[in-house]
Amino acid sequence: MKSSSSLQKRLGLGLTLGMTLLWLGATVGAWLVVQHELNEAFDSALEETAQRILPLAVLEISNREEPREAQHVATLKMHNEYLTYLVRDASGKILMQSHDANPKIFSKRPTEGFSTSQKYRLYGASALRQTLFIEIAEPLGHRREAAREALFALLLPLFLLIPVSLLGTWLFVRFSLRSVLAYRRAIEARGVGDLSPIKVARLPAEIDPVAEAVNHLLERLRNALEAERSFTANSAHELRTPLASTLAQIQRLHHEAPEGPLRVRAQKIENALRELSRLSEKLMQLAKAEGGGLLSETPQDLIPLLAHGVDEWNQHSGQRIVLQLPSQASVYSTIDPDAFGILLRNLIENALKYGATDQPVQVSLTEQAQLRVVNSGPVVPESVLEHLTERFVRGHSEISGSGLGLAIAKTIVQGVNARMKLLSPATGRQDGFEVCVWLPLAPS
Ligand SMILES: Nc1ncnc2c1ncn2[C@@H]1O[C@H](COP(=O)(O)OP(=O)(O)O)[C@@H](O)[C@H]1O
Ligand SMILES: [Mg+2]
């Protein structure tokens, strides 16, 4: 399966990239306009300066005694000129120049209007019917610097906007998706058997139909399971009476039959019927374990329940069970007492049935509501052990059984959100079998 990518990440990157591209586009557009306007302003200044100087130059040249002599205009104070100019006649002879002017940057013959050389922007104007020309040069570097600075000023906010947009989108999406996260948590927090509808307030419109569909599905699933469960429970229940009456008939037949093959056969049928009624009993227990309601509203003290259960078994089994209780007076758990009874019955039944008959069965409960049932006997290999809790899976073929006992125990344990572990050999021993259940402690 392709690993799913985060919506937060995708939106954050996508929106930031989109914003950056748009910003760059806008910057280029704005920069082109600014550049055009700057050129116009600079050109107009150049032209204005030429028009201003020209009449003064004409006046001065015509007042000279030797008008055709070139002359540097003296400065009041030494400085680097930003604008330099030449005044020439039509043949290109220099009549006047600003003190910094370099004649090489001007063309050989004076021209009018604007022109651009590699490094300078030039403007020429004439006076006295094109006999006197003034040309002004402005280094292009200056304009380029202005354009560069404008571009930089436009780009600068982008460096701030990118992280702000990434963080902003991330936070905003996280904020908008918080109900979806709550929905996920609600699903995750559910117990195994909980098929009730999932309720989360105000999901986004895109997710709401999904949640609704999930609830429909849960409902259909719940109905299907309910039907299956009630069928199992009902059939097991319906079988009880006919089984009991047939058993009674067979027992009578057994007693009345003369010594011989007929009596043996009646005995066999009786055994088979007992087996059948045990199976129907197990099916009822399984239906109850799957039916939910395994947690009780009020916390139950496990100690009297356990003591009573063990006592009952001991009366039938010749005191084979050794019970070990915590020093604490009571251990409260949220498990339903009936469910606890079924769980205990199945574990003790197994321990008595499969454990070495000359050895005691140890049942213990800790203050942390950890129940252990330990018996001696041969070690069960790991490969067999891991499948024993499945339905109708059995290890011993000589001893009769249904293969449902551990499956019932596991269903109950899962239904109360507890944990169960099978161990063989038992802890601290070379042999035997141990079942360990961590029951849910009631919050004190
Ligand atoms: N206390 C135990 N000691 C040894 N083996 C056990 C014990 N409990 C269960 N088993 C093994 O697990 C199998 C499954 O047990 P269970 O689900 O109760 O079914 P059943 O008892 O009807 O066979 C048993 O057949 C047996 O091989
Ligand atoms: Mg069993």
From TrEMBL:
Catalysed reaction equations from the record: ATP + protein L-histidine = ADP + protein N-phospho-L-histidine
Enzyme class: transferase
Transmembrane segments: 12-34, 150-173
Residue ranges of every copy of the Histidine kinase domain listed in the record: 234-443
Bilayer topology annotation: Multi-pass membrane protein
Main location: membrane
Recorded superkingdom: Bacteria
GO cellular component, as recorded: plasma membrane
Keywords: ATP-binding, Coiled coil, Kinase, Membrane, Nucleotide-binding, Phosphoprotein, Transferase, Transmembrane, Transmembrane helix, Two-component regulatory system
Coiled-coil intervals, chain numbering: 262-289
Single GO term (MF): phosphorelay sensor kinase activity
Subcellular location, record wording: Membrane
The enzyme's E.C. designation: 2.7.13.3
Domain annotation HAMP: ranges: 174-226
Protein's name according to its UniProt entry: histidine kinase
Source organism (scientific name): Pseudomonas reinekei
Lineage of source species: Bacteria, Pseudomonadati, Pseudomonadota, Gammaproteobacteria, Pseudomonadales
